[in-house]
Design a protein that fits this description.
mainly beta, Thrombin, subunit H, six-stranded antiparallel beta barrel, 12% helix, 32% strand, Peptidase_S1_PA
Length: 382
């Protein structure tokens, strides 16, 4: 920050003869969309009368001093007001206004006006629910990356992926659908009697050393889940405390159209599961991803239910297995459409680990969208 101000000081002093007593502003209006955001109160942290003539009202400083500004990790707009001008001998000060706030560089003989500032910042839940499926780092989409045999995802490029951990050991995957809920497979939720040892790790790339562990309040299994048939294999985790969204932690959108993703669509799966079939000590500490392809039918292998499940095939290099494995259960079937990422399903079951001869079955998100919304809305009403 000191380096930034030093640079600004040199820039503004150099240009003061041209822009004296004027403002350079990147703000084009004073709008703040009430559907997703709101204005903070006004802040006035410096008084140019009692300083060296500068008046700096910067959001990074304000966040540290005022809890109200903690939600302003993203600033959508800024509005400023001049509380009063000083009696200057000269008028050689310069003011820069942008989404970081107001930076006015003056001197003891040419003091800045006394500015106050307020920021338009997201109301977290409302804003982020409209921003689902966004990633700040472009994931791998073209290379035939795989979980089995191991290629890693770009760190935090899939910011909705979570690790479900029991007694500090990775057990299953899941995806963030809002700040209170994780979507996963029902067969991953066997810990209702020991929630104190069951956690969700969000924002991780290396599940051993990064991200944040969040305690769990409730495990919600679909009421018609049949373990013996792996039918209706879907569940929701309600967290004990809300997720704080950031560039590393984001919710994913949900597919609600039964016809999507279409036949032959390219889809992806990611997880921290095993990298060798039936070798339980081969789970990956870093997030791996695989590319799959939607196919029409799995009924020749399983008791497949096309209305409630999605069948996928190997879509990697021809000489190696490619796909999910033990420990990847519950992770999302990731589908990219119109600039957003969607969860089309959750990993349910397969024969082996991404074997070319056998498909993988996912529980279809669209078939359960009403139930998912019912669970989410129950939390909101409480």
């Amino acid at each position: 920050m000191l380096l930034l101000y030093s640079f600004l000081s040199c820039l503004l002093l150099f240009s003061s003869k041209v822009f004296g007593e004027q403002e350079l502003s990147s703000i084009v209006d004073d709008q703040c969309n009430p559907e997703v955001a709101s204005w903070t109160s006004w802040f006035n942290t410096q008084n140019p009368k009692t300083t060296n003539g500068n008046d700096i009202e910067d959001i990074s400083i304000i966040r540290k001093s005022y809890p109200e500004a903690a939600r302003c990790d993203t600033v959508l707009n800024v509005e400023y007001s001049v509380l009063g001008k000083t009696n200057n001998d000269t008028s050689l000060y310069q003011t820069l206004v942008n989404n970081n706030g107001v930076v006015c560089m003056g001197s003891p003989t040419s003091r800045c006006p006394d500015y106050s500032v307020r920021f338009c910042c997201p109301n977290k839940q409302e804003y982020m629910s409209q921003q689902c499926g966004q990633t700040f780092r472009q994931p791998h989409t073209n290379s035939p990356l795989r979980i089995v045999n191991g290629f890693q995802a770009i760190p935090h490029s899939l910011p909705w992926a979570v690790s479900l951990q029991y007694k500090d050991v990775h057990d299953c995957g899941g995806v963030i659908i809002d700040q209170w809920h994780i979507l996963t497979a029902a067969h991953c939720l066997d810990y209702s009697n020991d929630l104190g040892n069951f956690y969700v790790r969000v924002g991780a790339h290396n599940r051993l050393s990064s991200g944040q562990l969040i305690p769990i309040a409730e495990l919600i299994i679909h009421p018609t889940y049949d373990e013996s048939r792996s039918s209706d294999d879907i569940g929701i985790i309600r967290l004990a405390s809300p997720i704080t969204f950031s560039s590393d932690v984001q919710p994913i959108c949900l597919v609600d159209n039964m016809a999507e993703p279409p036949l032959d669509a390219t889809v992806y799966v990611a997880g921290w599961g095993n990298t060798v079939h039936q070798m339980w000590d081969t789970s990956s500490p870093i997030l791996l991803q695989a590319r799959l392809r939607v196919i029409s039918d799995c009924s020749m292998y399983f008791a497949y239910q096309p209305q409630n499940q999605i069948c996928t095939a190997h879509n990697g290099s021809a000489d190696k297995d490619h796909g999910s494995c033990q420990g990847d259960s519950g992770g999302g079937l990731l589908y990219f459409k119109n600039g957003r990422w969607y969860a089309a399903g959750v990993v349910s079951y397969a024969i082996g680990c991404g074997q070319q001869a056998y498909p993988t079955v996912f529980t279809k998100t669209a078939a359960y969208i009403d139930w998912i919304h019912e669970i989410i809305n129950r939390q909101k009403s409480n």
